[in-house]
Amino acid sequence: MPVADANLSQLLTEQRKHVTPALSRLHDHIIVKGQGSKVWDETGAEFIDFNAGIGVTNLGHSHPAVTAAVIHQAQQVSHVQCSIGFSLPYLQLVEALRPMMPHESLDTFFFWNSGSEAIEMALKLVKRATNRNNIITMVGSYHGRTHGASGITRSKPIYTQHTGPTMNGVYATPFPYWHSLGVDPSTPEEELVRLAKYQLELLIKTQTAPTDVAALFIEPVIGEGGYVPAPAAWLQFLREFCDKHNILLVLDEVQSGFGRTGKLFAAEHVPGFKPDVLVFAKGLANGYPLSGVASRRELMEKQEVGSIGGTYAGNAVACAAAVAVAEVFKTQPILENVNARSKELFDALYAIRDSPKTGHLVADIRGQGLMVAVEFRTESDPLTTKDLPAGTALPKDIGKRIQKKCHDNGLLLLTTSCFDTIRFIPPLVITQDEMAQALKIFTAAVEEVAHEG
Protein backbone atom coordinates (compact mmCIF):
# COMPACT_ATOMS: atom_id res chain seq x y z
CA MET A 1 0.00 0.00 0.00
CA PRO A 2 1.43 3.44 -0.89
CA VAL A 3 2.41 5.70 1.99
CA ALA A 4 2.23 9.48 2.19
CA ASP A 5 4.79 11.17 -0.06
CA ALA A 6 5.68 14.77 0.87
CA ASN A 7 7.52 15.33 -2.41
CA LEU A 8 4.43 14.40 -4.42
CA SER A 9 2.26 16.62 -2.24
CA GLN A 10 4.62 19.51 -2.92
CA LEU A 11 4.54 18.79 -6.66
CA LEU A 12 0.74 18.83 -6.55
CA THR A 13 0.65 22.14 -4.67
CA GLU A 14 3.10 23.84 -7.03
CA GLN A 15 1.84 22.55 -10.39
CA ARG A 16 -1.94 22.19 -10.11
CA LYS A 17 -2.31 25.94 -10.69
CA HIS A 18 -0.72 25.51 -14.12
CA VAL A 19 -3.31 22.97 -15.27
CA THR A 20 -6.24 24.43 -17.20
CA PRO A 21 -9.10 25.30 -14.81
CA ALA A 22 -11.57 24.09 -17.44
CA LEU A 23 -10.69 20.54 -16.39
CA SER A 24 -12.69 19.41 -13.36
CA ARG A 25 -11.59 16.67 -10.96
CA LEU A 26 -13.52 14.53 -8.50
CA HIS A 27 -10.37 13.74 -6.47
CA ASP A 28 -7.91 16.63 -6.53
CA HIS A 29 -4.90 14.53 -5.60
CA ILE A 30 -2.41 12.31 -7.42
CA ILE A 31 -3.53 8.75 -8.01
CA VAL A 32 -0.23 6.92 -7.61
CA LYS A 33 -1.34 3.28 -7.69
CA GLY A 34 -4.27 1.19 -8.84
CA GLN A 35 -4.82 -2.51 -8.31
CA GLY A 36 -8.04 -4.27 -9.24
CA SER A 37 -10.96 -2.23 -7.90
CA LYS A 38 -8.90 0.02 -5.65
CA VAL A 39 -6.69 3.10 -6.04
CA TRP A 40 -4.36 5.01 -3.70
CA ASP A 41 -3.27 8.64 -3.75
CA GLU A 42 -0.04 10.40 -2.69
CA THR A 43 -1.30 10.74 0.89
CA GLY A 44 -1.70 6.95 1.19
CA ALA A 45 -5.51 7.18 1.18
CA GLU A 46 -7.27 4.11 -0.26
CA PHE A 47 -10.46 4.21 -2.33
CA ILE A 48 -12.79 1.70 -3.92
CA ASP A 49 -13.00 2.95 -7.50
CA PHE A 50 -16.60 2.89 -8.71
CA ASN A 51 -15.64 4.95 -11.78
CA ALA A 52 -13.12 2.68 -13.53
CA GLY A 53 -11.78 5.67 -15.46
CA ILE A 54 -15.40 6.31 -16.56
CA GLY A 55 -15.92 2.77 -17.75
CA VAL A 56 -12.39 2.23 -19.10
CA THR A 57 -10.54 -0.12 -16.74
CA ASN A 58 -13.21 -2.79 -17.04
CA LEU A 59 -10.77 -5.52 -15.97
CA GLY A 60 -9.54 -3.45 -13.05
CA HIS A 61 -6.38 -1.44 -12.61
CA SER A 62 -3.07 -3.02 -13.60
CA HIS A 63 -4.57 -6.29 -14.77
CA PRO A 64 -1.62 -8.74 -14.96
CA ALA A 65 -2.46 -10.10 -18.43
CA VAL A 66 -2.81 -6.61 -19.90
CA THR A 67 0.34 -5.39 -18.16
CA ALA A 68 2.36 -8.34 -19.46
CA ALA A 69 1.12 -7.77 -23.01
CA VAL A 70 2.03 -4.08 -22.87
CA ILE A 71 5.53 -4.75 -21.56
CA HIS A 72 6.16 -7.42 -24.19
CA GLN A 73 4.96 -5.24 -27.05
CA ALA A 74 6.92 -2.20 -25.87
CA GLN A 75 10.04 -4.35 -26.07
CA GLN A 76 9.27 -5.29 -29.70
CA VAL A 77 8.01 -2.14 -31.42
CA SER A 78 6.06 0.61 -29.68
CA HIS A 79 4.35 2.10 -32.71
CA VAL A 80 3.68 1.39 -36.36
CA GLN A 81 1.77 4.17 -38.09
CA CYS A 82 -1.29 2.62 -39.72
CA SER A 83 -0.70 4.19 -43.15
CA ILE A 84 2.85 2.82 -43.27
CA GLY A 85 2.38 -0.78 -42.24
CA PHE A 86 0.69 -3.27 -39.94
CA SER A 87 1.84 -4.11 -36.46
CA LEU A 88 1.29 -7.70 -35.36
CA PRO A 89 -1.14 -6.73 -32.55
CA TYR A 90 -3.24 -4.72 -35.02
CA LEU A 91 -4.01 -7.84 -37.07
CA GLN A 92 -4.32 -10.02 -33.97
CA LEU A 93 -6.90 -7.59 -32.64
CA VAL A 94 -8.96 -7.79 -35.83
CA GLU A 95 -8.82 -11.57 -35.52
CA ALA A 96 -9.90 -11.45 -31.86
CA LEU A 97 -12.72 -8.95 -32.36
CA ARG A 98 -14.47 -10.51 -35.33
CA PRO A 99 -16.13 -13.33 -33.32
CA MET A 100 -16.92 -10.90 -30.49
CA MET A 101 -19.02 -8.57 -32.62
CA PRO A 102 -22.78 -8.50 -31.88
CA HIS A 103 -23.53 -9.29 -35.54
CA GLU A 104 -21.47 -11.21 -38.09
CA SER A 105 -21.94 -8.47 -40.71
CA LEU A 106 -19.55 -6.25 -38.71
CA ASP A 107 -16.44 -7.64 -40.34
CA THR A 108 -14.28 -4.62 -41.27
CA PHE A 109 -12.46 -2.40 -38.75
CA PHE A 110 -10.68 0.89 -38.28
CA PHE A 111 -8.87 1.70 -35.02
CA TRP A 112 -8.40 5.18 -33.64
CA ASN A 113 -7.46 6.67 -30.25
CA SER A 114 -10.61 7.87 -28.48
CA GLY A 115 -14.35 7.47 -28.56
CA SER A 116 -14.82 10.99 -29.93
CA GLU A 117 -12.45 10.29 -32.81
CA ALA A 118 -14.24 7.05 -33.59
CA ILE A 119 -17.53 8.98 -33.75
CA GLU A 120 -15.88 11.44 -36.16
CA MET A 121 -14.85 8.48 -38.33
CA ALA A 122 -18.39 7.10 -38.23
CA LEU A 123 -19.81 10.47 -39.29
CA LYS A 124 -17.53 10.59 -42.32
CA LEU A 125 -18.28 6.96 -43.10
CA VAL A 126 -22.07 7.29 -43.18
CA LYS A 127 -22.07 10.54 -45.10
CA ARG A 128 -19.73 9.18 -47.75
CA ALA A 129 -21.55 5.85 -47.99
CA THR A 130 -24.97 7.44 -48.50
CA ASN A 131 -24.10 10.77 -50.16
CA ARG A 132 -26.43 12.36 -47.60
CA ASN A 133 -25.56 14.98 -44.99
CA ASN A 134 -28.15 14.94 -42.21
CA ILE A 135 -27.91 13.04 -38.93
CA ILE A 136 -30.60 12.08 -36.41
CA THR A 137 -29.51 11.82 -32.78
CA MET A 138 -31.23 11.20 -29.45
CA VAL A 139 -32.14 13.70 -26.75
CA GLY A 140 -29.87 12.86 -23.81
CA SER A 141 -27.13 11.34 -25.95
CA TYR A 142 -23.41 11.88 -25.42
CA HIS A 143 -20.99 11.13 -28.25
CA GLY A 144 -17.91 13.21 -27.39
CA ARG A 145 -16.36 16.65 -27.18
CA THR A 146 -14.78 17.09 -30.62
CA HIS A 147 -16.60 19.20 -33.21
CA GLY A 148 -18.71 16.57 -34.94
CA ALA A 149 -19.16 14.43 -31.82
CA SER A 150 -20.33 17.37 -29.72
CA GLY A 151 -22.56 18.41 -32.60
CA ILE A 152 -24.62 15.24 -32.15
CA THR A 153 -24.44 15.29 -28.34
CA ARG A 154 -27.62 16.26 -26.51
CA SER A 155 -26.92 15.49 -22.84
CA LYS A 156 -25.80 18.96 -21.70
CA PRO A 157 -25.14 22.29 -23.47
CA ILE A 158 -21.75 22.71 -21.73
CA TYR A 159 -19.99 20.78 -24.50
CA THR A 160 -20.86 23.41 -27.12
CA GLN A 161 -21.45 26.48 -24.95
CA HIS A 162 -19.87 29.68 -26.28
CA THR A 163 -17.95 27.87 -29.03
CA GLY A 164 -19.99 28.98 -32.03
CA PRO A 165 -22.17 27.00 -34.41
CA THR A 166 -21.83 23.23 -34.31
CA MET A 167 -22.10 20.84 -37.25
CA ASN A 168 -25.29 21.56 -39.16
CA GLY A 169 -27.86 19.08 -40.38
CA VAL A 170 -28.34 17.46 -36.96
CA TYR A 171 -31.84 16.66 -35.69
CA ALA A 172 -32.66 15.35 -32.21
CA THR A 173 -35.53 13.04 -31.35
CA PRO A 174 -36.64 12.00 -27.84
CA PHE A 175 -35.29 8.81 -26.33
CA PRO A 176 -37.96 6.63 -24.66
CA TYR A 177 -37.08 8.10 -21.26
CA TRP A 178 -39.71 9.76 -19.12
CA HIS A 179 -37.68 12.98 -18.77
CA SER A 180 -37.24 13.29 -22.55
CA LEU A 181 -40.97 12.87 -23.09
CA GLY A 182 -42.14 14.91 -20.09
CA VAL A 183 -44.20 12.12 -18.53
CA ASP A 184 -44.47 10.46 -15.15
CA PRO A 185 -41.51 8.22 -14.10
CA SER A 186 -43.93 5.33 -13.65
CA THR A 187 -45.06 5.47 -17.29
CA PRO A 188 -44.97 1.92 -18.74
CA GLU A 189 -42.17 1.13 -21.17
CA GLU A 190 -44.66 0.37 -23.94
CA GLU A 191 -46.10 3.88 -23.67
CA LEU A 192 -42.64 5.48 -23.64
CA VAL A 193 -41.78 3.63 -26.85
CA ARG A 194 -45.08 4.64 -28.45
CA LEU A 195 -44.51 8.30 -27.67
CA ALA A 196 -40.90 8.17 -28.90
CA LYS A 197 -41.98 6.50 -32.16
CA TYR A 198 -44.50 9.27 -32.77
CA GLN A 199 -41.88 11.97 -32.23
CA LEU A 200 -39.42 10.33 -34.65
CA GLU A 201 -42.08 9.96 -37.32
CA LEU A 202 -43.05 13.59 -36.75
CA LEU A 203 -39.42 14.66 -37.14
CA ILE A 204 -39.14 13.27 -40.68
CA LYS A 205 -42.46 14.85 -41.59
CA THR A 206 -41.62 18.31 -40.32
CA GLN A 207 -37.84 18.84 -40.04
CA THR A 208 -35.86 16.72 -42.50
CA ALA A 209 -36.85 14.45 -45.34
CA PRO A 210 -35.60 10.91 -44.73
CA THR A 211 -33.93 10.99 -48.15
CA ASP A 212 -31.56 13.62 -46.71
CA VAL A 213 -30.64 11.58 -43.63
CA ALA A 214 -27.39 9.61 -43.71
CA ALA A 215 -27.67 7.91 -40.34
CA LEU A 216 -29.32 7.67 -36.97
CA PHE A 217 -26.94 7.52 -34.00
CA ILE A 218 -27.98 5.90 -30.72
CA GLU A 219 -26.42 4.65 -27.51
CA PRO A 220 -28.13 1.37 -26.55
CA VAL A 221 -27.74 2.62 -22.99
CA ILE A 222 -27.78 6.41 -22.76
CA GLY A 223 -24.52 7.15 -20.97
CA GLU A 224 -23.62 10.61 -19.73
CA GLY A 225 -27.28 11.55 -20.21
CA GLY A 226 -28.35 9.39 -17.28
CA TYR A 227 -27.71 5.63 -17.80
CA VAL A 228 -31.03 4.83 -19.45
CA PRO A 229 -31.25 1.47 -21.28
CA ALA A 230 -33.06 1.46 -24.61
CA PRO A 231 -36.11 -0.83 -24.57
CA ALA A 232 -35.75 -3.76 -26.96
CA ALA A 233 -38.90 -2.63 -28.77
CA TRP A 234 -37.30 0.76 -29.42
CA LEU A 235 -34.16 -0.72 -30.96
CA GLN A 236 -36.23 -3.09 -33.08
CA PHE A 237 -38.36 -0.19 -34.29
CA LEU A 238 -35.28 1.86 -35.17
CA ARG A 239 -33.93 -1.02 -37.25
CA GLU A 240 -37.22 -1.20 -39.15
CA PHE A 241 -37.39 2.60 -39.49
CA CYS A 242 -33.86 2.83 -40.87
CA ASP A 243 -34.41 -0.04 -43.31
CA LYS A 244 -37.63 1.56 -44.55
CA HIS A 245 -35.89 4.86 -45.31
CA ASN A 246 -32.43 3.55 -46.33
CA ILE A 247 -30.90 5.27 -43.31
CA LEU A 248 -27.82 3.75 -41.65
CA LEU A 249 -28.10 2.81 -37.97
CA VAL A 250 -25.00 3.63 -35.91
CA LEU A 251 -24.69 2.08 -32.46
CA ASP A 252 -22.43 3.97 -30.04
CA GLU A 253 -21.16 1.34 -27.59
CA VAL A 254 -18.19 3.40 -26.43
CA GLN A 255 -19.27 3.06 -22.79
CA SER A 256 -21.65 0.10 -22.89
CA GLY A 257 -19.33 -2.29 -24.75
CA PHE A 258 -16.92 -4.95 -23.51
CA GLY A 259 -18.98 -6.51 -20.78
CA ARG A 260 -20.28 -3.39 -19.08
CA THR A 261 -23.98 -4.37 -19.33
CA GLY A 262 -23.56 -8.11 -18.69
CA LYS A 263 -23.15 -8.94 -22.38
CA LEU A 264 -20.05 -8.31 -24.50
CA PHE A 265 -22.09 -5.59 -26.20
CA ALA A 266 -25.41 -4.10 -25.09
CA ALA A 267 -26.84 -4.85 -28.54
CA GLU A 268 -26.83 -8.53 -27.57
CA HIS A 269 -29.69 -7.91 -25.16
CA VAL A 270 -31.81 -7.81 -28.34
CA PRO A 271 -31.14 -11.16 -30.06
CA GLY A 272 -30.24 -10.79 -33.73
CA PHE A 273 -30.05 -7.00 -33.60
CA LYS A 274 -27.97 -5.66 -36.49
CA PRO A 275 -26.40 -2.20 -36.49
CA ASP A 276 -24.87 -0.94 -39.72
CA VAL A 277 -21.97 0.64 -37.83
CA LEU A 278 -20.64 -0.10 -34.34
CA VAL A 279 -18.46 2.40 -32.45
CA PHE A 280 -16.48 1.20 -29.42
CA ALA A 281 -13.67 2.35 -27.12
CA LYS A 282 -13.22 2.63 -23.31
CA GLY A 283 -13.07 -1.03 -22.14
CA LEU A 284 -11.46 -2.14 -25.41
CA ALA A 285 -7.88 -1.76 -24.13
CA ASN A 286 -8.40 -1.40 -20.37
CA GLY A 287 -6.92 2.06 -20.05
CA TYR A 288 -4.74 2.36 -23.14
CA PRO A 289 -5.97 4.88 -25.75
CA LEU A 290 -7.73 2.87 -28.43
CA SER A 291 -11.12 3.01 -30.12
CA GLY A 292 -12.68 1.34 -33.11
CA VAL A 293 -15.34 1.45 -35.78
CA ALA A 294 -16.73 -1.76 -37.24
CA SER A 295 -19.01 -2.07 -40.25
CA ARG A 296 -19.59 -4.27 -43.25
CA ARG A 297 -16.98 -4.08 -45.97
CA GLU A 298 -19.32 -2.73 -48.64
CA LEU A 299 -19.79 0.43 -46.57
CA MET A 300 -16.16 0.79 -45.54
CA GLU A 301 -14.89 0.50 -49.10
CA LYS A 302 -16.92 3.54 -50.17
CA GLN A 303 -14.35 5.74 -48.45
CA GLU A 304 -11.49 6.73 -50.73
CA VAL A 305 -8.02 5.47 -49.89
CA GLY A 306 -6.31 8.05 -47.71
CA SER A 307 -9.50 9.72 -46.53
CA ILE A 308 -8.99 8.40 -42.99
CA GLY A 309 -5.94 7.77 -40.86
CA GLY A 310 -4.15 9.20 -37.85
CA THR A 311 -0.65 9.42 -36.46
CA TYR A 312 -1.37 7.26 -33.43
CA ALA A 313 -4.38 5.34 -34.78
CA GLY A 314 -4.17 1.66 -33.88
CA ASN A 315 -1.00 2.06 -31.80
CA ALA A 316 0.82 -1.26 -31.40
CA VAL A 317 1.04 -1.19 -27.59
CA ALA A 318 -2.64 -0.23 -27.22
CA CYS A 319 -3.63 -2.99 -29.67
CA ALA A 320 -1.57 -5.50 -27.68
CA ALA A 321 -3.45 -4.46 -24.54
CA ALA A 322 -6.76 -4.94 -26.37
CA VAL A 323 -5.76 -8.42 -27.57
CA ALA A 324 -5.03 -9.34 -23.95
CA VAL A 325 -8.43 -7.95 -22.90
CA ALA A 326 -10.18 -10.08 -25.51
CA GLU A 327 -8.34 -13.18 -24.26
CA VAL A 328 -9.40 -12.50 -20.68
CA PHE A 329 -13.04 -12.27 -21.74
CA LYS A 330 -12.62 -15.53 -23.63
CA THR A 331 -11.00 -17.48 -20.79
CA GLN A 332 -12.32 -15.99 -17.55
CA PRO A 333 -15.89 -15.68 -16.13
CA ILE A 334 -16.04 -11.88 -16.38
CA LEU A 335 -19.65 -11.69 -17.56
CA GLU A 336 -20.79 -14.09 -14.85
CA ASN A 337 -19.22 -11.80 -12.25
CA VAL A 338 -20.87 -8.73 -13.79
CA ASN A 339 -24.32 -10.28 -13.55
CA ALA A 340 -23.80 -11.55 -9.98
CA ARG A 341 -22.50 -8.20 -8.73
CA SER A 342 -25.22 -6.37 -10.69
CA LYS A 343 -27.93 -8.17 -8.74
CA GLU A 344 -26.27 -7.20 -5.46
CA LEU A 345 -26.06 -3.57 -6.59
CA PHE A 346 -29.68 -3.38 -7.70
CA ASP A 347 -30.89 -5.13 -4.54
CA ALA A 348 -29.10 -2.55 -2.38
CA LEU A 349 -30.51 0.36 -4.38
CA TYR A 350 -34.02 -1.09 -4.22
CA ALA A 351 -33.62 -1.41 -0.45
CA ILE A 352 -32.76 2.31 -0.26
CA ARG A 353 -35.80 3.13 -2.42
CA ASP A 354 -38.09 0.97 -0.28
CA SER A 355 -36.80 2.20 3.07
CA PRO A 356 -39.07 4.64 4.97
CA LYS A 357 -35.93 6.58 5.93
CA THR A 358 -34.60 7.17 2.42
CA GLY A 359 -37.21 6.18 -0.14
CA HIS A 360 -38.56 9.72 -0.53
CA LEU A 361 -35.21 10.77 -2.03
CA VAL A 362 -35.27 8.30 -4.94
CA ALA A 363 -36.94 9.12 -8.26
CA ASP A 364 -35.64 6.24 -10.38
CA ILE A 365 -33.26 3.26 -10.42
CA ARG A 366 -32.15 1.92 -13.79
CA GLY A 367 -29.38 0.40 -15.86
CA GLN A 368 -27.96 -2.90 -17.06
CA GLY A 369 -25.15 -5.02 -15.66
CA LEU A 370 -22.64 -2.73 -13.96
CA MET A 371 -23.83 0.39 -15.77
CA VAL A 372 -26.37 1.54 -13.19
CA ALA A 373 -27.82 4.83 -11.97
CA VAL A 374 -30.00 6.18 -9.20
CA GLU A 375 -31.78 9.46 -9.91
CA PHE A 376 -32.87 11.59 -6.97
CA ARG A 377 -35.89 13.82 -6.68
CA THR A 378 -35.57 17.60 -6.82
CA GLU A 379 -38.13 20.13 -5.65
CA SER A 380 -37.80 22.06 -8.90
CA ASP A 381 -38.81 19.03 -11.00
CA PRO A 382 -42.54 18.28 -10.77
CA LEU A 383 -42.09 14.96 -12.59
CA THR A 384 -40.11 13.58 -9.66
CA THR A 385 -42.19 15.07 -6.84
CA LYS A 386 -45.83 14.75 -7.91
CA ASP A 387 -46.35 11.49 -5.98
CA LEU A 388 -44.81 12.72 -2.73
CA PRO A 389 -47.14 13.50 0.20
CA ALA A 390 -47.88 17.18 0.58
CA GLY A 391 -45.32 18.98 2.68
CA THR A 392 -42.50 16.51 2.10
CA ALA A 393 -39.21 18.41 2.30
CA LEU A 394 -36.33 17.37 0.05
CA PRO A 395 -32.66 18.12 0.73
CA LYS A 396 -30.79 20.26 -1.80
CA ASP A 397 -28.10 18.80 -4.07
CA ILE A 398 -28.73 15.23 -2.94
CA GLY A 399 -26.39 13.54 -5.40
CA LYS A 400 -23.46 15.89 -4.85
CA ARG A 401 -23.75 15.59 -1.07
CA ILE A 402 -23.89 11.80 -1.22
CA GLN A 403 -20.92 11.78 -3.61
CA LYS A 404 -18.89 13.92 -1.16
CA LYS A 405 -19.72 11.72 1.82
CA CYS A 406 -18.79 8.59 -0.14
CA HIS A 407 -15.50 10.18 -1.18
CA ASP A 408 -14.68 11.08 2.41
CA ASN A 409 -15.27 7.45 3.39
CA GLY A 410 -13.19 5.81 0.66
CA LEU A 411 -15.59 5.37 -2.28
CA LEU A 412 -15.18 7.20 -5.60
CA LEU A 413 -18.47 7.85 -7.41
CA LEU A 414 -19.51 10.14 -10.26
CA THR A 415 -22.69 12.07 -10.87
CA THR A 416 -24.07 12.33 -14.40
CA SER A 417 -26.68 14.01 -16.63
CA CYS A 418 -28.46 17.34 -16.22
CA PHE A 419 -30.64 15.71 -13.55
CA ASP A 420 -29.59 14.74 -10.02
CA THR A 421 -28.12 11.32 -10.79
CA ILE A 422 -25.30 9.15 -9.45
CA ARG A 423 -23.83 6.48 -11.71
CA PHE A 424 -22.17 3.21 -10.75
CA ILE A 425 -19.46 1.90 -13.10
CA PRO A 426 -17.09 -0.25 -11.04
CA PRO A 427 -14.51 -2.56 -12.60
CA LEU A 428 -16.16 -5.71 -13.91
CA VAL A 429 -13.84 -7.79 -11.71
CA ILE A 430 -15.07 -6.25 -8.47
CA THR A 431 -15.42 -8.89 -5.77
CA GLN A 432 -18.47 -9.66 -3.64
CA ASP A 433 -16.72 -8.28 -0.55
CA GLU A 434 -15.70 -5.06 -2.33
CA MET A 435 -19.23 -4.58 -3.62
CA ALA A 436 -20.64 -5.09 -0.11
CA GLN A 437 -18.17 -2.61 1.37
CA ALA A 438 -18.97 0.02 -1.27
CA LEU A 439 -22.72 -0.40 -0.86
CA LYS A 440 -22.38 -0.06 2.91
CA ILE A 441 -20.62 3.28 2.41
CA PHE A 442 -23.19 4.45 -0.14
CA THR A 443 -26.22 3.44 1.94
CA ALA A 444 -24.82 5.22 4.99
CA ALA A 445 -24.24 8.36 2.92
CA VAL A 446 -27.82 8.36 1.65
CA GLU A 447 -29.16 7.89 5.17
CA GLU A 448 -27.04 10.77 6.45
CA VAL A 449 -28.30 13.13 3.74
CA ALA A 450 -31.89 12.07 4.40
CA HIS A 451 -31.43 12.71 8.14
CA GLU A 452 -29.68 16.06 7.68
CA GLY A 453 -32.34 17.31 5.26
UniProtKB/TrEMBL annotation:
Q: Does the keyword Protein biosynthesis apply?
A: no
PROSITE patterns xrefs:
AA_TRANSFER_CLASS_3
Per UniProt, which keywords does this protein have? Aminotransferase, Pyridoxal phosphate, Transferase
Gene3D superfamilies listed in its UniProt record: Aspartate Aminotransferase, domain 1 (3.90.1150.10), Type I PLP-dependent aspartate aminotransferase-like (Major domain) (3.40.640.10)
**InterPro entries listed in its UniProt record:** Aminotrans_3 (IPR005814), Aminotrans_3_PPA_site (IPR049704), Class-III_PLP-dep_AT (IPR050103), PyrdxlP-dep_Trfase (IPR015424), PyrdxlP-dep_Trfase_major (IPR015421), PyrdxlP-dep_Trfase_small (IPR015422)
Q: Which CDD domains match?
A: OAT_like
The lineage's top-level taxon is Eukaryota
Provide the GO MF annotations for this entry: identical protein binding; pyridoxal phosphate binding; transaminase activity
Q: Which family does it belong to?
A: Belongs to the class-III pyridoxal-phosphate-dependent aminotransferase family.
> What protein name is recorded for this chain?
4-aminobutyrate aminotransferase
